[in-house]
Amino acid sequence: MKRRNALILTALALSPTLLSVSTRSYAMKNKLQLDPNPENVEPFTLDEVEWKMRLDEEAYYVLRQEGTEAPFSSPLNEEKREGQFACAACNLVLFESDKKYDSGTGWPSFWQAIEGRIETKKDFKLILPRTEYHCARCGGHQGHVFKDGPRPTGLRYCNNGIALKFIPAASS
Ligand SMILES: [Zn+2]
């Protein structure tokens, strides 16, 4: 009886510890804050299970599976405040609000990305080649860039709003 009680006590004493360790590592992963404006863009990689834990379903579909959100579905389409737009997966700032414009397409659009923050590749998902672009740090898919944008670049970065998070400027 004594031994049995001792075992139960040990189990009770251990279980909150086990619970708090697993809760803590989960919380750490979700709250992992990466520098939005690093000097160097160090690659940030997670396995697919970890990405699924970090992102909600639709963000995972866009960022990790190159999906496209429905037009006019993102509140960032209407975001006009001064600030920065960061990758929703790793917080790397990709765009500045003064390079955003209303393209009328229903997706947040920019005529310039911050240098070195995105990378591009050709994709043929709609048969005609398009230029896909993604976050240079985590590889998360952001959108496609087209050559029908406004001056001075003539480019239109057509971005999924769900792949971005807006960071308002301190003054706004
Ligand atoms: Zn990223």
List keywords for this structure.
six-stranded antiparallel β-sheet; alpha+beta; globular; three-stranded antiparallel β-sheet; 9 strands; 3 helices; Metal Binding Protein, Guanine Nucleotide Exchange Factor, Chain A; 172 residues; binds zinc ion; 27% helix
3D architecture notes:
With 172 residues, the protein is α+β, with helices and mostly antiparallel strands. The chain is built from 3 helices and 9 strands. It has a 6-stranded antiparallel sheet with strand order 3-4-8-7-6-5. The longest helix is centred in the first third of the chain and has 30 residues, at 2-31. Bound molecules: zinc ion. Zinc ion (ZN) binds at residues 87, 89-90, 92, 135, 137-138, 140.
Task: Give the gist of this structure.
With 172 residues, the chain is an alpha+beta fold. 27% of the residues lie in helices and 26% in strands. Zinc ion binds next to loops.
Average pLDDT metric: 87
The unique ligands bound to this protein are: zinc ion
Q: Structural class of the secondary structure composition? A: alpha+beta
Assign a percent range to the helix content.
25-40%
Q: Assign the CATH architecture.
A: Beta Complex
Number of strands: 9
CATH topology descriptor: Metal Binding Protein, Guanine Nucleotide Exchange Factor, Chain A
Radius of gyration: 21 Å
Which percent band covers the strand fraction? 25-35%
Count helical runs: 3
Biggest pleated sheet: 6 strands, antiparallel
Strand order of the largest sheet: 3-4-8-7-6-5
Poorly predicted sequence stretches spanning 5 or more consecutive residues: 14-28
The span between the termini is 67 Å
Order of helices and strands: HHHEEEEEEEEE
In the CATH hierarchy, what is the class?
Mainly Beta
Rough outline:
globular
Q: Compute the number of structural domains.
A: 1
What is the CATH superfamily classification?
Peptide methionine sulfoxide reductase
